[in-house]
Amino acid sequence: RGDTHNNLGLALTQLARYGEAERNFSLALELMPTDARVHVNIAALHASQKQLVRAEASLRQAVKIAPKMLVARRRLALLLGRRGNVVDAIVQLRAIVALAPDDSEAHSLLGGALASQGKLAPAMPHLLKAVTLKPNDAKALVNLGGAFAASGQPAKALGPLRRSIALHPTANAYFNLNLALRQLGRVDEAKKALRAAEQLRRSTHKP
To answer: Using an 8 Å Cβ cutoff, are 147 and 123 in contact?
Structure first.
């Protein structure tokens, strides 16, 4: 019966019937208090209602119950990053890559998080690993190119950034390309990249 209430709670969450979902999850918890899946699903319910503090608490409980549950750690890392707690997000991402060394997304996220903290040297192996595991991951390529530019290696940044743009053009990719080109003294190309970044940013934020 606990699984039934858990599954029903998840389905009701997806239908935005939050009160009914919460009641079913409460029943599931009474029957299966140490089932990490229930806590992960409760976190999804809270996140759907923008209750991020409660969502974080549920995910931390899930990780405490099941330390090797990758989905719980990944969602916790993403939520922590969303809330600006990059240091704790890095802790979760390090745990994921320790448990799953070939998880390209985790390597990309970890490298990006480390780079955002100015820790470029430890970030680089994770970013390179992410691109090795998944060569067509546009976001991983942007992270790698941005890290090369930030670490004073603009020539190495061009390849990953241009490949990312070819796969999925974003304002962030063009902005990083602008920075790398400026470092190389290629001002006209840099201006062109910056215009493309601004154009994409404006189109993304159109009402």
So the answer is: yes
Q: Where are the alpha helices (DSSP H) in 100-150?
A: 104-116, 120-133, 138-150
Backbone angles phi, psi at 15, to 5 degrees: -90, 5
Smallest CA-to-CA distance from 180 within 145, 128, 137, 141 is with 145
How many Cα atoms sit within 13 Å of 166 on the Cβ side?
Answer: 9
Q: Which residues contact 105 (CB under 8 A, 6 or more apart)?
A: 74, 130, 134, 137
CA 86, CA 117: separation in Å to the nearest integer?
8
d(CA 5, CA 30): 10
Distance CA 189, CA 165 (A): 15
User: Could you give the CA distance from residue 160 to residue 138 in angstroms, rounded to a whole number?
Assistant: 9
**With a cut of 70, which residues of the chain have pLDDT below it?**
205-207
Angle, vertex CA 175, rays to CA 170 and CA 179, nearest 5: 150
Q: What is the pTM of this model?
A: 0.87
Best CA proximity match to 60, nearest among 48, 73, 70, 51:
73
User: How far, in Å, CA of 107 to CA of 133, rounded?
Assistant: 9
Long-range contacts of 127-134 (CB under 8 A, 24+ apart): 129/104, 130/104, 130/105, 131/160, 133/102, 133/104, 133/107, 134/104, 134/105, 134/108
pLDDT computed for residue 113 by the predictor: 95
User: What pLDDT score was predicted for residue 206?
Assistant: 59
